[in-house]
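Side project, low priority. Logging it here so it doesn't get lost.
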Amino acid sequence: MKKIMIIAGLLIGLVGTSYSQDVPLRKGDKAVQAHREMKSAEERAKMSANALEKKLNLTPEQKEKVYALQLERANKMEKLQKAASAYRKNQMEKRKELMEDGKEKMNKILTEEQLKTLEAMKTKGKERMQNNRRLMHRPRKD
């Protein structure tokens, strides 16, 4: 059993490194966008099994077993990703509620003038953050 798990781990590592070398790195490239589109678990398992078949000269029986293993792994990973996504969405909603609740309480505490000053501070902070993002994401001059 240990041997099978070790071999499966090595195979997954081999496939991952072989795919990562073939993708161009430019953001606007359509090949990159097509590659990043989420493929179904069956497609990913088939691609992985085909790549391993070519690189390791697998027999048809081995290819079937590798495909089944990769399909099982891909399905489990998909479930994990969906659960993580739902958790993040739930956390964002909770944070939003907390922020709104805090804002309501702050509005009850501060005077009108203090609220205006606070809003100006927030606006200034947002502008500063947007400027920083622009600076970080501007095209490099090579």
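Brief comment: Residues 110-142 form one domain.
Revisit when time allows.
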